[in-house]
Write a structure and sequence with these properties.
Number of strands: 13
Oligomer: single chain
Largest sheet: 7 strands, antiparallel
Strand content: 25-35%
Structural class: alpha+beta
Low-confidence stretches: none
């Protein structure tokens, strides 16, 4: 189809930010950082390569995801520990903060709760920013590698992709069949993964993660959390993610308890204030 005469004029229209976020609840980052300074380690979980593991974090505590042996990305799911229907909402998090998130930004929960689940308080890859390809780290645009798309594209039967890893881990944690656990697995925060969209075709791309052993992403739990983290079969995601070819390494999840009184004045987030009448 040929372009209309005013095509250039239409393309030149300035964009408008859909969700200006300057009215979001203020993040008390100074309070969180002060509380973290005196916090003590309370538990840890090692996530094996091409596997996933679950962990729990009480509201008001901290958790850290670390690279410990080699460059490795992870796929993170979060749920309200008492109600799995409230879970991380990657799409709304993306709409509120952008395609990638870092210190001072939050992981938001699904409707109807729509409240902060976790706040990033430290990010050793915060220096990376946005590169010349439009790539950055810790994305909320990728959905997770899964066996269904793998089968669609190549006919493969691959069982250690992140979706399957998370399904197995959650089933084990809850003591339920995989068929019951799988519907709770949802779109992820791609921890340490370096991604973006191509300018030419708008396709989702990945590139070698800049993560190195010792790097970490640290969070403050705004509510009681059940988490699941998969050590992606793509390793550093430099070439592919649904095979056993990539070098893969474990990830470490640590939790930290603040000293008594360190969060004086802090109140956990309430459920979203919409009255849920939907016009009726």
């Amino acid at each position: 189809m040929s372009e209309p005469k005013d095509a250039a004029v239409r393309r030149a229209v300035s964009p408008v930010i859909c969700y200006p976020n300057d009215t979001l609840p203020e993040v008390p980052l100074a309070l969180y950082k002060a509380a973290r300074a005196g916090a003590v380690k309370s538990s840890e979980v090692i996530v094996a390569p091409r596997e996933a593991a679950c962990f729990r974090v009480p509201a008001g505590h901290f958790f850290r995801i670390s690279s410990v042996e080699g460059a490795q990305v992870g796929d993170l799911n979060l749920w309200n520990a008492h109600d799995l229907s409230e879970r991380f909402y990657s799409g709304k998090t993306r709409a509120l903060h952008g395609t990638h998130i870092t210190t001072g930004e939050r992981m938001w929960s699904s409707f109807p709760a729509l409240r902060p689940m976790a706040t990033i308080v430290d990010d050793t890859l915060g220096w990376y920013g946005m590169d010349e390809f439009g790539g950055s780290v810790h994305d909320v645009i990728g959905t997770r590698c899964d066996p269904y798309t793998g089968n669609l594209l190549s006919g493969a039967q691959y069982h250690h992709c992140c979706h399957s890893n998370l399904t197995r881990a959650l089933a084990d944690e809850l003591g339920v069949p995989q068929s019951e656990a799988e519907p709770h697995v949802h779109d992820v925060l791609n921890v340490f993964m370096c991604t973006g969209f191509t300018r030419e075709t708008g396709q989702y791309f990945m590139k070698t993660s800049p993560v190195r052993p010792g790097d970490y992403l640290e969070f403050f739990a705004e509510i009681d959390l059940l988490g699941a983290l998969s050590a992606c079969p793509g390793g550093d995601c430099s070439s592919e993610h649904t095979s056993d070819a990539a070098a893969c390494y474990p990830l470490l999840v640590e939790t930290f308890a603040p000293a008594e009184g360190a969060l004086s004045g802090w109140v956990g987030p309430a459920l979203n204030g919409y009255d849920r009448s939907h016009g009726r």
